[in-house]
Amino acid sequence: MKKQIITPTRSITEETEKLLNKQIVMEGKSAAAYLSMASWCETKGYDTSAAFLFKHSDEERMHMLKLIHYVNTAGGHGLQPEITGIKHTFKSLREVFETVLNHEIEVTKSINNIVDHCLAVKDYATFNFLQWYVVEQREEETLARRAVELFNLIGEEGVGLWLIDQEIGKLEAYAERMSGKP
Ligand code: FEO
């Protein structure tokens, strides 16, 4: 195991800093990808999905900022990520939400990986900080799974797509209910 190098000016190791910066890239890419999806939805008239994804993009930026502040105050340097390779067009609304779900599953794996690392090097402060992301990922995966499920439940024929778009507006309330919040 890599030796922990903690000094009076830093409370995270360089390895932890590197992992958190990788997560910053992931959150930045999420923000950009969801903004792109929102814009595509808006051009297609899926207004509720567009509003949902614009908001979700803002939330991802907040996730990125939260990490940047944490790294900086722990003595490291949170880096603005390079964002390239953003997809601008989609085959369908279903493809948009399937992409969101697959992406969120990858984000959860990445967060879990850093949590594992923190336990291994006994960095309990970063472990504790990351619990917020663990809870958030649970909610985000629930949202995305439900969105994909709507396509199977409602069907895309006739007014189906219009209805699915309407239901996307209720996803946050659904995720809160599922998390047991009153
Ligand atoms: Fe911040 Fe959706 O991961």
Tell me about this structure:
With 182 residues, the chain is mainly alpha-helical. It has one domain (14-179): Ferritin, core subunit, four-helix bundle (Ferritin), CATH 1.20.1260. It contains 6 helices and no strands. Helix 2 packs parallel to helix 5 (160-168). The longest helix has 31 residues, at 14-44. MU-OXO-diiron binds at residues 27, 30, 60, 63, 104, 107, 140.
List keywords for this structure.
182 residues; mainly alpha; Ferritin; 6 helices; binds MU-OXO-diiron
> What is the string of SSEs from the N terminus onward?
HHHHHH
How many angstroms separate the termini? 44 Å
Shape: elongated
What's the architecture in CATH terms? Up-down Bundle
Report the radius of gyration as a whole number of Å: 18 Å
The quaternary organization reads as: single chain
Kindly summarize this structure in a few lines.
This protein has 182 residues and is mainly alpha-helical. It has six helices and no strands.
Question: How does the SSE layout of this entry go?
Answer:
Blueprint lengths: L13 H31 L2 H27 L19 H28 L3 H31 L5 H9 L2 H8 L4
The structure holds MU-OXO-diiron.
